[in-house]
Amino acid sequence: SINNAIREVYPSLYRSVYSTDLVTNNVLPNGHFTDWVTTSAPDFYTATNVTPTEGTTASVTRKGGSSVKLVATVANGYLYISSDEYPTLLDLMGKTVTLRVWGYPDTVANDTTVVIYTLQADGTAQTLTSTTACPLDKWTLIELEDQVLNDDLVKVEFRFQITTNASTVYFDNARAYGKIMYEYLLPTDFRN
Q1: In the sheet that 140-148 helps form, which strands lie side by side, from edge to edge?
Q2: Which residues, at least 6 apart from 114, have a Cβ–Cβ distance to it below 8 Å?
Q3: How many whole angstroms separate alpha carbon 63 and alpha carbon 104?
Q4: 15 or 53, which is more confident?
Q5: Nearest to 96, CA basis, from 145, 44, 25, 47
Q6: Which of 56, 72, 60, 138 is nearest to 105 (CA)?
Q7: More confident position, 19 or 119
């Protein structure tokens, strides 16, 4: 009877929701940085020595409704997602991982990198850094491809880093691959 009632009131209660935020096998939630419960950082992400704000105008979004604008408060500040807050990232231990994000340096060319940081149970750290050139005022796909992560990990972090103090960079459409995903966290529009 519920299904029949839904069919009868279809045009009145129907709400179309269209989203391209989910990417097959992307382990990063909120990769388009569209969900912001607080204004301090996008959901699941934490800022270290950067000030994040939501970029919503067409010129500062690559795809989707928003991006994240980072302004460095010291050199090598970054926005990151950690397995401490999102434990699914620990499933990447011992796997070959690729991290990609679109970057748009607004102040200094070649001012942005992506970093994969891991920590093993014995205290051994691993820091893998991209070397993609990123011209000023252009969207560039920043990549760190085919990186083998250590085993016995207790922490995995994906960092979106700015090299120069007081510099501004926009990031959008972040994705990390390394395992087959069967479950995805839906964007807020779908959950609500």
Answers
A1: 50-55, 67-72, 168-177, 96-105, 140-148
A2: 99, 100, 101, 129, 130, 142, 143, 144, 158, 159, 160, 161
A3: 13
A4: 53
A5: 145
A6: 138
A7: 119
**How confident is the model over 170-180, as pLDDT tens digits?**
999 999 999 88
* Total length of the chain: 192
| pLDDT tens track for 115-138 | 999 999 999 999 999 999 999 999
- The DSSP secondary structure of 26-75, one letter per residue, reads ---TTTT----SSSSSSTT-EEESEEEEEE-SGGG-SSSS-EEEEEESST
Q: Above pLDDT 90, what percent of the chain?
A: 67
Task: Give the model's pLDDT for residue 171.
Answer: 94
